[in-house]
Amino acid sequence: IRRLSKFLESGPRTKELRDLNLSSCLAPNEDSLERGACHSLASSLILQAKLHTLNLSHLKLTHTHVSILCSAFALPLEVLDLSGNKINNQGALRLFRLRHPTLRKLYLHNNDIKRDVVLQAHTLVCEMP
Hints:
The protein is α/β, with parallel strands linked by helices. The protein has helices at 2-10, 35-46, 63-69, 89-97, 115-121, and strands at 19-21, 53-55, 79-81, 105-107.
């Protein structure tokens, strides 16, 4: 993730990214994304002004990671995939409080979020089983 963050910060071509898929990019021996790497990722994502689709699924993200990444979620994102992580009710509520104006779809399935919290809090959440 840190190498990817440096790449995203490095060149003008990366500023034109519209879609970014980081799904399952943790090494098999990593328990979760380390906090420093998460801060680096957030900093580099903020520079991606044209990013519309961001897939951060299956990265073992928790509510702590969501708090760190919230600044990056202020991008003009239309689709945000956070499925298959370890986000709990607290992290979901933090996301819902953002009231993101351009977000059309938010994927949160296969997390540690109670279904009733999601259904009561947000209309953008897609297909929670």
